[in-house]
Design goal:
mainly alpha
Amino acid sequence: MSDQAAAGADQEPALEGPSPPAPDLEGIVTELSIEVERRRAAGAYPASLTERLGAPFHPDEGLEPPEASVLVASARPLRSRRPVIGGVSVFAKRVTRRLLSWYVAPIARDQTRFNLAILRELRTLEDRVARLEGRPPHGEEEAAGPEPGKG
């Protein structure tokens, strides 16, 4: 076999013809919208679902602030509701926890340190966005309070 033939054998064969056209996304969305409207008119969806879909979306509604989740504890309270073996189970878990604390505690400290660093950066970004939008930075809206003499 010649060098040229050997070099040609290593290469991928070229695909013949034009590449397939990109999908028509607008057409697909239109088609799906028509199908949804047809099913909605036919009563295929329960009223509770359509009401929930029409409600505004607030993903962070009711969540506690991120500061509440920063601290990672290396141990949590141990309890058991089993009357007979519960005490033995809790004792065994405490012994196991004590034996593993040398390994778990540094991981929890590192995670807490990381969480604090991320939270600091998040607050810095929030303050920067607030300044760009012309709003008071995070924390200053609460600290400002009513002006003296007005109240």
